[in-house]
Amino acid sequence: MEHIRVTSKGSVGKSILLVLILGAVFFAAVKLINLDMQKFYERLENVPVVLSRMMAVDFSIVPDALLNIVTSLALALLTLVVAVFLAMFLSFLAASNIAPNRYLAIFIKGFFAIIRSVPSLVWGLMVIASLGFGNVSGFVAILISAVGYLTKTFTASIEETGSEIIEAMKATGASWFKIIYHGLIPLCITAFVAWITVCFETNVSESIGLGIIGVGGIGLLLTQAINTYNYAQTTTIVIMICLLMVVLELVMTKMKNKIKFGNS
Amino acid sequence: SADTANKGWPEELTLVQMPNENNPNAASMHTALRDHLSKELGIEVKEFEGGSYAVGIEALASGNLDVMLASPMSYYQANQLAGAELLVTPQVEGYEYYTAFITKKDNKEINNMEDLKGKNFAFVNAASSSGYLYPKGTLVQEFNLDPDSVEQSGYFFENVTFSESHPNSVMGVMMGDFDAAAVAIGQLDSMIEAGTIKEDDFKIIGQTQNIPDASYIVRGDLPEDFKNALKDAFVSFEDEKYFEAVHNDPKARFIATEQDYYDPTIEMLDAINALEEEAK
Amino acid sequence: MNPLLSIKNLVKVYGKDTRALNGITLDFYPGEFIVVIGPSGAGKSTFIRCINRLVNPSEGKIIFDGQHLEKLSGRKLRKERSKIGMIFQHYNLVGRTNVIKNVLHGQLSSTPLYKSLLGLYRHEDKQEAVELLKKVGLQDQIYKRADELSGGQMQRVGICRAILQRPKLLLADEPIASLDPLSANIVMQQLHTISLEKKLTCIVNLHQVDYAKKYATRIIGIKKGAVVFDGAPSRLTDAMIQEIYEGKESQMTLQGKSGMQLAVGQNDE
Amino acid sequence: MNPLLSIKNLVKVYGKDTRALNGITLDFYPGEFIVVIGPSGAGKSTFIRCINRLVNPSEGKIIFDGQHLEKLSGRKLRKERSKIGMIFQHYNLVGRTNVIKNVLHGQLSSTPLYKSLLGLYRHEDKQEAVELLKKVGLQDQIYKRADELSGGQMQRVGICRAILQRPKLLLADEPIASLDPLSANIVMQQLHTISLEKKLTCIVNLHQVDYAKKYATRIIGIKKGAVVFDGAPSRLTDAMIQEIYEGKESQMTLQGKSGMQLAVGQNDE
Amino acid sequence: MNSKIVPKIPLDQRDSKRTFVIVAAIFAVLIFSVYYLEISFIEMLMGIPSFVMFFFEKFLPPNTENLQQYIPAVIDTLGYAVISTYISTIIAFVFGILISENTNKFKTLRVITRGFVSVLRNIPFIIWGALLVYIFGIGGIVGVLALILVTIGFLSKSYAESIDEISGDKLEALRANGSSYFQILFHGVIPQFVPAWINWTLFAFEINVRASAVLGLVGAGGIGVLIDTNINLFKYGEAITIIAVIVMIILLTELVTNSIRKRFV
Ligand SMILES: Nc1ncnc2c1ncn2[C@@H]1O[C@H](COP(=O)(O)OP(=O)(O)OP(=O)(O)O)[C@@H](O)[C@H]1O
Ligand SMILES: Nc1ncnc2c1ncn2[C@@H]1O[C@H](COP(=O)(O)OP(=O)(O)OP(=O)(O)O)[C@@H](O)[C@H]1O
Ligand SMILES: [Mg+2]
Ligand SMILES: [Mg+2]
C-alpha cells in the first residue's frame, strides 16, 4: 500500500530540523542559566506568607492617589495622541506592502529597533540634560517609547492586511497617501485601536516608572510607598491602578466593537 | 521681583530630592521646605523627586538643576563634572549612618569579618556608596586586599553577586542565596520596622566607618551671595512636622556643610581605586 | 490607427518555475472589446494584472498610450494607471467603508488630497456615482457597508468604481462570475456600450464562451501562458473552443466520459 | 418517503430592517438535486447558510435527518454539520495550508484531534483526497499552498473538501462561478452523479439558468426572500425566468432597452 | 445643470453633529492635559539640538576596551531571554486564545482571563520585583519568572488582538463541516496566525533581551544592569558599546528568524 504524504517530503524534514534547532536552543539556554528548580519548589511555600503581608489596604491614600492618577492619565493621553500620529505616518513608510521606498522602510524599522534597545535611563539622561526636570521631560521620554511600540505594531498590522485593497486602489491611480487614507486606514482601524489601547496602558505604567526624571503622578506615590515598606498603601495604589486599567480596557473594547460592527 | 534681577540671581530654583538608602522618607511630598525657601529667597522654587544620581548630575552640569541631595560619591562626581559645591546637611542627633555586614542568625560558619573569606557575598551595585564602595573599602583596608580583584571569584570571596538593591541583599541572605551581604543600616531598620524581617533573623558581623550624611549640593556657577542666601534659608528652616516626617526626629535641623566634609570619604574611595575613571 | 496598448513578448514567472505567461505579443486598438478566455490556471488573471503593473512582468514591453509602462514608476505610473480602470475577480472593496465612498474611490486620483480627506468630491462625481449605482440596482444600498453586501452586489460596486474612473482602457477579471444572468447581461451590455460610445478599449477575462461570443469584437484564447487563438468571435469554432479548454483536466470526469461538453448553451444548440 | 430536510417558515433579518428571508417553507427529499436561482441579493446565500446554521435564522424550523437544527448547539450541532457538506462562493480555504491538507479538512470531524494534528488521516481518506484532486485536474498542485492557486483552482479544492466529507446533504453557493466552462461542466456533472449514486441531496445556488435546467431535478426560484418558483426544470418557462429575475434592476440598462435578454444561451435557442 | 436647486449628496448617513461633539471632546481633554501638565511644545523643540548634542558629545566615541568582560553578561542575558520567551510564548498563546472572541465563546471565561492578564500587565515592575524577591530570593529562577510575568501580560493581549483579526471566512468552512473546537483552532486559526505569532514572539524576545529594569530589580544581573552601572559611573563610552551589543543581538536574531521563516514556514 503506497503511503500518501500530507506534507511534501522536503517540508517534513524541514519541520523536524526546525523543532530540533528550537529544542537545542532552549536546552542550551537552560543549561546556561542554571535553573535550580528544587529551590523554586521549596520556596513556593513563601507565597501565602508574602501575599498575606500585602493583604492590607489604607484608604487614607485614596484622595491623594486620585489626584496623582489625573496627572498620570493626562500625561499618558497626551503622549498617546502625539505618538499615534507619528507612528501612523512612520508605519506606512515602513510596512513592506505599501512602503514607497524599500530602503527607507528598512531604515525606519532598524532605527526603531535601535530606539527600543536604548534603556530608559539613557533616555532619561538625555531628556533631562536637554529639557530639565518636569512633565515636558516625562512627555518626551514616554513619547519615544510609545512611538517605538506603535510603529512596530502598526507596521505589523498593515503588513498582515495583504494586498487586495492596495491593488484595487493602486489600479485607480490613487497616490500613496490616498491609498492609505481611503483604503488601509479603514481596513486596519480595528487593529490600530487595539494597539492604541495597549499603548495607552503601557504609557500609564511607564509614567509610573518615570520617577527617575522627576515626573509626578501615581508612580511617585507608589515608589514612596514601596521604599518606606508601607504595604497597605502599596496595595491600595496597585488596586486603584488595576481598577483604572480595567475600566479603560472596557471603554476601549466598546469603542473597538463600535468601529468594527458599526456603520461605515 | 525687581531685586532678584539686579543681583543676577536665577529667576527660579530647581531642587531635586533623591531617594536615599538611609532615609527613604526624603520625599518631595512635603511642600513646607519648598514654601520656606521660596519665601526666603523671593523666587519660585520647584521641587522634584529624582531616581538616579547620574540623571541629577547631568542636569546640574547642563544648568537644568540647582540643588540636589547627594551622597559622598555623587558629590564627588558632581563636583568633577559640574563643579557642584556642598551646601547643607540634615543633622539628626544620635543617628549614625553606616553599612552593616550581615549574615543569617543561625549561620555557624560566619561570626566575624574574617569568616567571610571563601563565602558567597553580595554587594548592591558598583555605583552605590553604601552598598559597594564603603564595604569594599572596609574589606580592602582590613584585609589588605587588591582593590581591583575583590569581585573576582576565588580571590577573597567564593563568589560575588550584585543584588541591585539593599532589600534584595537582605532577602538573599535570609533565603540563603548568598552567605552574607553589605546593607545600609537605615534600610535594615526600615525593614524591621515594616515587619518584613525580624531583628533576630540575622546578625551583624561587622560594619563600615560612619558614612557622612547625604548633603544638599548646589551648582557652583550661581552667584556667591545667592548661594549664601540659599544656605541661610535652609538653616533657618525649623518646621518640626517636616523633620519628623522626613528624618523621624522633630529636632533635626539643616546645618551648613564645610567644603571638606566629605574629604575622608573621598580619600577612602581613592584608596580602592574607585575614582580613577572619573578623575580625568 | 495606432494601437492604444501594445504588448511585446510578455513573460511572467512566479517564484522559480511557475511560468504563468510565456511570451505574449498583442496589440489592442481603441474601441476594441476584447474577451480573454482560457482554462483555469492558464494565466488570464496574470496577463490582465501585468498590463497595469499590479504584477510586475518578468520580461517584455507594455506600451500604453505611448508610454512604456514597464519602465514607469511613482507619479508617472499613477498617472497612467488612472487612465486604466480595473474590475477585480474578488471585488477588492474596502469592507468597512460604505458603498458610495467605495465607488468614489474611482475618482481619487483626480481629487486633490485635502478634498478627498474631507470627503469633498466634486458634485458631478457624486451624482454620477449615484446614477451608476442606480443603474446597477443598488440605489437602496448606497450607505450600506461594503462588507454587508451579497457577492453580486459587491461585484456591481466594483464595476461602478472602475467606470467612475472614466478610463481609456478597462480591465476586468471575471466581472460577471457572481452575477445573475440578468445583471450579467446588463453589465456586459453596459461595458459594451461604453466601449462603443467612448472608444474605450475593454479587456475582459471571461469563462462564459457564450457571453464572449455575444459581446466581444475580438476574442483571445490563452492556454498555458501562450496565445492560442486571436480573432473575431465568428472565427471561434467549436473545435477551436475545444482545443483551448481541452487539457489534462478534460480526461477526468467521473464517469470516464471525456469532457467534450462545453458551455451548456452551446450544447443546446 | 420522509423528507431529509424540512424547512418551515424560515425568516432572517439582518440588523434592524434587512429582511433577507421572508418566511420560506420547503421539503427536500433524498437524492434530489435542487438548484436555487434568483436575482443578486435575493437571499440565496442567506438561505443556504441558514440550513447549516452558519447564519442563525431569526425565526422558523429546520428539521434535518429528524433533528431540529435550529435548537442544537455544541457537540450535537457539530455532529449534524458533519453530515452536511458545503462549498463556498469564496472558497474559504486555509490559505497558508497546502492543498491536500485543505481537502482532508473534510474528514476532520471524524478524525481524533491528535491524529489530525500529526497528519495521521486514514489511508483511504488520503487516497480518496488524492483521487478527487486528480479528477479535478490538480494533481500537480497537491503540496502547493492554497493561497498560491488561481481562483478556479481554489474552487476545485473547496469542492474536493466537501465531497471528502461524504455528506448526506451538500450545500453549494455558486460553486462554478469562477470555473471555465469545461471545469464547470465537470464539476456539475460530478455533483450530479454523486447525488444520483449515493442518494445525496444537493442544494446548489446558481446564476446560470442553463446549467440549472440541465442538471437540476428541481428548481427553486427565490426573489426578495420568498419562494416564487418551485418545480421541475421543464416547468421553468421563459416567462417564469423573466419574472424571477425581473425587478427594478431590469429597467435600467443604459440604452433604455428593458433587460429582456436573459442567459445568452437561452437567447440563442 | 438647470436652475433647479442641486440636491446635496451626503457621503454617509451618520449624524455629523455627533462626530463633531466627539472630536470636540477629545480636543478639550487634550487642551486640558497640555494646560494641566504645563507642557510647552516650544520648549520641547528648543531642546532638540541639545538633546542630539548630548548624545554625540557624551556617548561617542564608544569605548570597546572592555568588550570581553561583557561576554558573560551578554550570554546570561540571551539565556534568560530565550527561556522566558519560550515559556511565555506558550502560556500567552493559551491566554490569547482564551481572550479572543474568535476562539472563546464563553463570555465569563473570556472576561476572567482578560481581567487576569490585565492585572498581570498593569502591576508595575517594581511591585513584581519586590514580590518575587520576597518569595523566591535572588537568582536565575527569579530572573526568568520576572521576565515571564512581564512578557505574558503584553504577549497575551497582542496574540488575542491578532487572533481577533483573523477573518471568520476561513474558519466558517471548518465550522460548516462539523469540526470540533480544537480542530478549528489547530487547522484553521493557528495556520493563519503563524505570521503574526512569529512577529510577536520576536518582539517578546527583543523585550526580554533589553529588560534591564526587570532583571535588575530582582538582582539577576544581565546586560541592562551593566549599562545602568556604567552610566551611574559616567562611563558613557562603555555604556554605548553595550547598547550597541544589544542592538546587534536583536538585529541578528531578527535576521536569523526571518531567514528561517522564509525557508521553513
Ligand atoms: N502569487 C502566485 N504565486 C505563485 N503562483 C501563482 C501566483 N498567482 C498565480 N500563480 C500560478 O500561475 C498560474 C496562472 O494563474 P492565473 O491566476 O493567472 O490563472 P487564471 O487563468 O486567472 O485562472 P482562473 O481562471 O482559475 O482564475 C497558475 O498555475 C497559478 O497557480
Ligand atoms: N452580514 C450582513 N449584514 C447585513 N445585511 C446583509 C448581510 N449579508 C447579506 N445581507 C443582505 O441580505 C440580502 C441577501 O443577501 P444574500 O447574500 O443572501 O444574497 P444572494 O442571493 O446570495 O445574492 P448574490 O447572488 O449576489 O450572492 C442582501 O440585500 C444583502 O445586502
Ligand atoms: Mg483568474
Ligand atoms: Mg450569494
Automatic annotation (TrEMBL), chain A:
Keywords: Cell membrane, Membrane, Transmembrane, Transmembrane helix, Transport
Compartments, record wording: Cell membrane
GO terms of biological process kind: transmembrane transport
The organism's place on the tree of life at top rank: Bacteria
SUPFAM superfamilies assigned to the protein according to its UniProt record, in alphabetical order: MetI-like
Membrane topology field: Multi-pass membrane protein
Cellular-component GO terms for this entry: plasma membrane
Pfam family, one: BPD_transp_1
Domain ABC transmembrane type-1, residue spans: 69-252
Record-annotated membrane-spanning stretches: 12-33, 73-99, 120-144, 179-200, 207-226, 232-251
Protein family according to the UniProt entry: Belongs to the binding-protein-dependent transport system permease family.
Protein name according to UniProt: ABC transmembrane type-1 domain-containing protein
Organism: Metabacillus litoralis
UniProtKB/TrEMBL annotation, chains C, D:
Origin superkingdom: Bacteria
Domain spans labelled ABC transporter: 5-249
GO molecular function, a single term: ATP hydrolysis activity
Listed SMART domains: AAA
GO cellular component, one term: membrane
KW Protein transport (keyword) present: no
Gene3D superfamilies: P-loop containing nucleotide triphosphate hydrolases
Transport found in the keyword field: yes
InterPro entries (alphabetical): AAA+_ATPase, ABC_transporter-like_ATP-bd, ABC_transporter-like_CS, ABC_transpr_PhnC, MetN_ABC_transporter-like, P-loop_NTPase
PROSITE patterns linked: ABC_TRANSPORTER_1 (PS00211), ABC_TRANSPORTER_2 (PS50893)
UniProt keyword annotations, A-Z: ATP-binding, Cell membrane, Membrane, Nucleotide-binding, Phosphonate transport, Translocase, Transport
Pfam families to which the protein is assigned, alphabetical: ABC_tran
NCBIfam families noted in UniProt: ABC_phnC (TIGR02315)
Name the record gives this protein: Phosphonate ABC transporter ATP-binding protein
Automatic annotation (TrEMBL), chain E:
Gene3D superfamilies: MetI-like (1.10.3720.10)
All copies of domain ABC transmembrane type-1, residue ranges: 74-257
Membrane topology: Multi-pass membrane protein
UniProt keywords, alphabetically: Cell membrane, Membrane, Transmembrane, Transmembrane helix, Transport
Major localization class: membrane
Transmembrane segments: 20-37, 80-99, 134-155, 207-227, 239-257
Record's subcellular location: Cell membrane
Keyword Transport among UniProt keywords: yes
UniProt record similarity statement: Belongs to the binding-protein-dependent transport system permease family.
Protein name (record): Phosphonate ABC transporter, permease protein PhnE
Gene: phnE
